[in-house]
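quick one, two chains, predict together pls
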Amino acid sequence: MLRPWQVTLSERIDPERGTPIYMQIIHALIRDIETGRLASGTYLPSSRELANALGVNRKTVVLAYEDLIAQGWLSTEGTRGTMVSRSLPTGTSSQTATPEPEQRVEQTHYRFAEPPARALALPGGRGIKLDEGAPDGRLFPADQLARAYRSAINRASRANRMQYRDPRGSDSLREQVAEMLRSQRGLPVTPANICITRGSQNGLFLALQVLIEPGDAVIVEELTYEPAVAAIRALGGKVIPVRLDEEGIDVAEVEAMCRRHSVRAIFVTPHHQFPTTIAMRPERRLQLLEVARQFGVAVIEDDYDHEFHFQSQPLLPMAGYAPGQVIYLGSMSKLLLPALRIGYLAAPEKVIDAVAHRVSLTDGMGNTVTEETAAELIANGELRRHARKAWRVYAERRQSFAALLDAHLGDRVDFAVPDGGLAFWVKFRGDIDAIEQRAQAQGLRFASHRSFMARDSADKGLRLGFASLDDGEAARAVSALAEAAR
Amino acid sequence: MLRPWQVTLSERIDPERGTPIYMQIIHALIRDIETGRLASGTYLPSSRELANALGVNRKTVVLAYEDLIAQGWLSTEGTRGTMVSRSLPTGTSSQTATPEPEQRVEQTHYRFAEPPARALALPGGRGIKLDEGAPDGRLFPADQLARAYRSAINRASRANRMQYRDPRGSDSLREQVAEMLRSQRGLPVTPANICITRGSQNGLFLALQVLIEPGDAVIVEELTYEPAVAAIRALGGKVIPVRLDEEGIDVAEVEAMCRRHSVRAIFVTPHHQFPTTIAMRPERRLQLLEVARQFGVAVIEDDYDHEFHFQSQPLLPMAGYAPGQVIYLGSMSKLLLPALRIGYLAAPEKVIDAVAHRVSLTDGMGNTVTEETAAELIANGELRRHARKAWRVYAERRQSFAALLDAHLGDRVDFAVPDGGLAFWVKFRGDIDAIEQRAQAQGLRFASHRSFMARDSADKGLRLGFASLDDGEAARAVSALAEAAR
């Protein structure tokens, strides 16, 4: 016959639930101690009796009792069997009514910062996706990647390099990146000037951590990358959007803002402006550097897709001619694969040391195996071979995407074929909100024009990535968009 | 014959420098435009003339001119050759004296937060290392890891999953982790309650981001993990250390601090207290949860090496019986490999959504390939097999390390063999500062006792990891330490 307490216990044990029964018994007993249903000093039924009452194997109850004894919840003083430890406090009656853990998991009894209504990542789902300029992951040879991983694992394992390591990243990748930045982008750097990051966004987050304190201001282009704006705000920074034209950021406004606010950094994407794709003209670059120098402000130069310039050689980063003024961010997400999360930050050595400290706080260090894999792919030339191949594919896709936009959207849109980067910036003649709604209703997934706008007066447009879509996918995406813009 | 400007140019081109000559020419010209040595509208020498003057191949100069034209620095108006673009501003004389980029890279013209004098990571170098409780990376079968990577890459590549993804982490790993937490640790969770992190530290950093704003307070144990303290401070939080005894944190002091400060979170390591290795007793757990509930404060439970408990089954996390009060942090660093940076955070779904937003800001998302590799290793049972093997090895090393400490340090130290975790907490009878200095002088690398102390009145001791050392290494390390403590 069940005693009243055994009745409530047996009602709460459910073999159908995912949790093992022995674990359920443990939790139910802890819960009953916590709530005072089982007072300290109370003797429990024998394992045989409880097993019968619950209709479970006796061994299950024995296991649960043993664990609870080892953990100090129960004890076996004397000979009268198992009791609730005398040291435990007596539960408060206020909790007797609170539900079991399984029902409680969605209740929180503390305050936390709610996420914004619109997520920063592209909406998930099964519809046709128009990303913001991602590469085509299918182009990268999986075999080469797996081989590079194997070789990196073997080397790292032999050298016992799978432990906690340098927060700046693995030596071999820092050497490869420094060499690449020196020879291909003209940055006067050594490995001491490099910190490996988990992508450009991580580089930005780390740079902001060393540059700003709550209340400091950061200038951004009025059309920009939303996660950058969100990162500045999350760190307590004030975001100051500045006008943008076809030649780049309006430096006169930058200067005016530097006079008015405590500006600590200017975040720009001079190579392929995000989202508009335009390159910042040399005169703007020089003027911007001059203002930055004058006010002692760091320029954060995000060169997120350096390799993919189609009209000429890639433009040289400002960090090449003003290394003491610029914190340079790069990424292998576009060149290799976004999923590997490899980026880098280049700056004077003492800034790198400050950034490395922030790495220690933020995530400790990078993924050594992946970093050594990336170093291997640079060293063995595979990455270069892939870059050449991807460049040719994307150059073609850029042309066919332009043709598709012309054919399907014709005079309902304004766009220029971008000189570089993996996306088009497209402005619609019609009501963009209505077009977006219709496009979403058709299952098209894309970033809203609002996501790019750091101020209301900025241009409204969509950034349409062409590189990740093969011909058929591009045709379907553009025709769905055209349908929505009709 | 060289014109004066060509003289200064040729002096600055150096074939011995790492940067390619054509890149050096580009930078020297940009630099001369920037400083006004080359005014806008100035005609440059022909490529042949400049090549002769510099003693380089003419093609090199042609390449440099072409790039500078494409980028807008030079132009070819009319027929008189190449000129500095008329649109460029005239350089300011104030800069004519500033050195070349290669000499300038270590000068910064902006303010940034200097790192602390003592780095958080264990000092690098070649000496004998006594870590804080790292696993032995050599035990993990490199072959199994490489095979799992290959299989994950193939699957991810076929399904085109190498793109930007869910900031909460890959579905397959979240499912495996939820199942593992449910069945082995009794947490009432589904994949919606899981966010994959880049290790425990990253989990803590993300949790803090959603819990605190500048000025809020976080309670820590008076002996604790230094990067946790640093992360709280970096996010503007106030650190409140609370007394610790053999049963865990002093809950009466926790309560007093909650009354006095705006406490938003309590960071604890209840399973194997870091650094002292003690387990928090059941009564303290219940009292702590009660205080947390009363003041609406989140408990951050860091269960960083759950699997390695030697005296009994691992103790059940508080998150199992109080899921709405506890943000649970786990890691695969100890079980698998630190270098893979895989951890997880378990919390109510709406908290996970808030954390996912912070992932978007901090590093965008995790390393999908590594996450799927980890999921594969859980699913195919390799991780469990490895855990059993590692457990046996560490259980033996724990005994032999205790014997070594007894034999070499005898009554000069105080320690207990830890019930769980991968380190000993050792208090020295002598002057700890002097002992540390002598040990460092002998090339021993270890974390200073100061790194654990969140307040001055806390105990002084060293945390000595035993798991990563084989018998010979352990003997060398302990005898070096004994030498220093003599």
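Confidence is low (pLDDT under 50) at residues 93-97 of chain B.
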